[in-house]
Amino acid sequence: MSEQNKALVTRFTEELWNRKNWDITDELLGEDVVLHLLGRIYNGREEWRREMGVFRDGFPDMVFTREFLVAEGDKVVVRFTATGTHSEEFQGIRPTGRKITMSGVGIFRISGGKIVEMWSHPDAASVLRQIGAIPSLASVR
User: Fold this and answer.
1) Measured between alpha carbons, how far is 78 from 111 in angstroms, rounded to an integer?
2) Mind giving me the DSSP string for 70-81?
3) What is the pTM of this model?
4) Fewest beta carbons less than 10 Å away: which of 73, 101, 108, 122?
């Protein structure tokens, strides 16, 4: 089962995020998928699509690299690095054209061959620093 779950999460990053094939969302995510992201909870595919659309739209060329993937039981954990260009509005911030690199961890719970729950922990503060929305730590000193 762990290998099947790892294959599902690999497909999630490769096909959906890296190849921008958003049409497969229903194949990969359970209808009532729960997303835990930056202290908020999003319920269902439509809320997931809206929230992920913020990243997809702000950084349309974003590509995810899986650093490692570990599976046990119904959970898969992935450590990732994402790169992209801030070429569209993101969180109300006008495009800067700056390239960003973001690291993070995603935890996926799988049931019935679909992702039914996700805990996503991207380094959002780093992204905001890289696009100039918040000062870098060096400039605060």
Assistant:
1) 17
2) EEETTEEEEEEE
3) 0.91
4) 73
